[in-house]
């Protein structure tokens, strides 16, 4: 890590940052001359900092604050090391960190550690998940009284309608996307295909698959930070909020995953289109935990505006082969690439919690040898299916009480997340939808 800074002498300051429960980057700015101390000894800040609400306020009844004396955790660098922050004008380096107790134990309220704990369960069975994420986001002009698509840097015109998979729509923002891909190269984020999506000023970029799920979550977290920061540098906003426009589809964050055995074989591949028994167990686990995990997949007030029938977001708990109306989709293609696509999450999720919830549910099903119901065919919105929670309060209560969730997340993380969401629910109820959009636009 120290060598990176020596190779980049133009960098004068660093940011050390960890993801809180909402996926917000929390940390410090440090002069480069003191970077060696951070690398060797870590840094410190209160454990309560990873349990702030969406405004960055303390949780009123959190035991992490006054009850415990607001004690410190020790923040140490992750495996990622230093990387540039191309959206800032001054040369700056980011050092991702995660939290530990004083005695070296992982702090269970840290979302990155929550994912690590799930991966330990796979490792104990000689299994390794391979994950890829698809991130949808909106480019937005928020300079006026209402949100609208930004002016094209090429034509000076404003996009007035959805242009699904339009090359012209991509080309209108070619300078931004070229800078974005260059920045991804600098930060070692594996950005792949970009498309124009079905919303107003909406785009999607896929990140390449990785057999290190922690790295895949890092990539998604860093990518969201990069896109939002770089858009501001170009004079407009980028947002991963679930539903900025009432009349257009919202943004999802879909994850594809397969599982390798100790010999590197895909345990979902049986040589045919249907997949293996282990695939069915994983699907069953995902379905069984879906109701309880809804708060992870839809963590904000605005999240539930996306989850309505016929709006390209799943509402029923189901699985299917090659069917994008279902919550769980088994894509077609080469049997060697047989995988599960989990389609429930909005773009506003914390990637660490989302991957922990998805993979944790899958390993629950694999451990139990669970069997799913028959896959559906046709339009899932028209089928009689058990439903994903459609309101925030129900999602909070269901998450807190879910036996499946209790197998995935630690009691401390469940408690902290529930307290956070109840506080946010209380204050968001006092705001209009447009005021809520203003809050979520830059934060999620």
CATH class categorisation of the largest domain: Alpha Beta
Uncertain ranges: none
Oligomeric category? single chain
What is the CATH superfamily label of the largest domain? Glutamine synthetase/guanido kinase, catalytic domain
List the helices and strands and how they pair.
Layout: H1 2-7, E1 13-19, E2 25-31, H2 35-41, E3 43-46, E4 72-77, E5 83-84, E6 92-100, H3 111-124, E7 128-140, H4 167-172, H5 174-187, E8 191-196, E9 202-207, H6 213-233, E10 237-239, E11 253-260, H7 277-290, H8 294-297, H9 303-306, E12 319-321, E13 328-330, E14 340-342, H10 351-368, H11 392-401, H12 403-408, H13 411-428, H14 433-443
Parallel strand pairs: 1-6, 12-13
Antiparallel strand pairs: 1-2, 3-4, 4-6, 5-6, 7-9, 7-10, 7-11, 8-9, 11-14, 13-14
Helix pairs in contact: 3-10, 5-6, 7-10, 11-13
Description:
- It holds the Pfam family Gln-synt_C.
- InterPro entries: Gln_synt_N, Gln_synt_N_sf, Gln_synth/guanido_kin_cat_dom, Gln_synth_cat_dom, Gln_synth_gly_rich_site.
- With 444 residues, the chain is an alpha+beta fold.
- It has 2 domains: 2-107, Roll (Ubiquitin-like (UB roll)); 118-443, Glutamine synthetase/guanido kinase, catalytic domain (Creatine Kinase, Chain A, domain 2, 2-Layer Sandwich), CATH 3.30.590.10.
- It is built from 14 helices and 14 strands.
- Helix 7 (277-290) packs across helix 10 and helix 11 packs antiparallel against helix 13 (411-428).
- The longest helix has 21 residues, at 213-233.
- It is globular.
């Amino acid at each position: 890590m120290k060598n990176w800074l020596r190779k980049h002498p133009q960098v004068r300051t660093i940011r050390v940052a960890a993801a809180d429960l909402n996926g917000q980057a929390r940390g410090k700015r440090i002069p480069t001359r003191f970077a060696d101390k951070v690398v060797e000894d870590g840094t410190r800040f209160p454990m309560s900092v990873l349990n702030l609400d969406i405004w960055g306020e303390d949780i009123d009844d959190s035991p992490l604050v006054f009850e415990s004396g607001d004690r410190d955790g020790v923040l140490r660098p992750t495996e990622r090391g230093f990387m540039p922050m191309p959206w800032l004008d001054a040369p700056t380096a980011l050092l991702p960190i995660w939290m530990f107790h004083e005695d070296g134990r992982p702090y269970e309220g840290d979302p990155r550690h929550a994912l690590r704990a799930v991966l330990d369960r796979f490792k104990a069975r000689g299994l390794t998940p391979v994950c890829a994420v698809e991130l949808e986001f909106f480019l937005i002009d928020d300079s006026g009284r209402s949100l609208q698509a930004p002016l094209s840097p090429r034509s000076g015109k404003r996009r007035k309608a959805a242009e699904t998979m339009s090359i012209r729509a991509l080309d209108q923002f070619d300078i931004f996307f070229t800078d974005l891909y260059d920045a991804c190269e600098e930060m070692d984020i594996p950005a792949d295909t970009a498309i124009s999506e079905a919303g107003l000023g909406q785009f999607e970029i896929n990140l390449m698959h990785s057999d290190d799920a922690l790295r895949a979550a890092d990539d998604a977290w860093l990518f969201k930070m990069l896109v939002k920061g770089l858009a501001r540098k170009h004079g407009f906003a980028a947002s991963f909020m679930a539903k900025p426009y009432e009349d257009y589809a919202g943004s999802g964050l879909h994850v594809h995953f397969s599982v390798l055995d100790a010999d590197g074989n895909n345990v979902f591949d049986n040589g045919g289109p249907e997949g293996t028994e282990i695939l069915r167990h994983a699907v069953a686990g995902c379905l069984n935990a879906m109701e309880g995990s809804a708060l992870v997949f839809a963590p904000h007030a605005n999240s539930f505006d996306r989850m309505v029938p016929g709006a390209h977001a799943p509402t029923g708990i189901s699985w299917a082969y090659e069917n994008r109306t279902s919550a769980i989709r088994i894509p077609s293609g080469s049997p060697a690439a047989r995988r599960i696509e989990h389609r429930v999450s909005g773009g506003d999720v914390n990637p660490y919690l989302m991957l922990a919830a998805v993979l944790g549910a899958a390993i629950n099903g694999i451990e139990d040898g669970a069997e799913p119901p028959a896959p559906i065919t046709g339009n899932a919105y028209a089928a009689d299916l058990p439903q994903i929670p459609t309101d925030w309060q129900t999602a909070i209560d269901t998450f807190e009480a879910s036996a499946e969730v209790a197998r995935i997340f630690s009691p401390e993380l469940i408690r902290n997340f529930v307290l956070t969401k109840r506080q946010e629910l209380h204050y968001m109820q006092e705001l209009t939808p447009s005021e809520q959009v203003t809050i979520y636009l830059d934060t999620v």
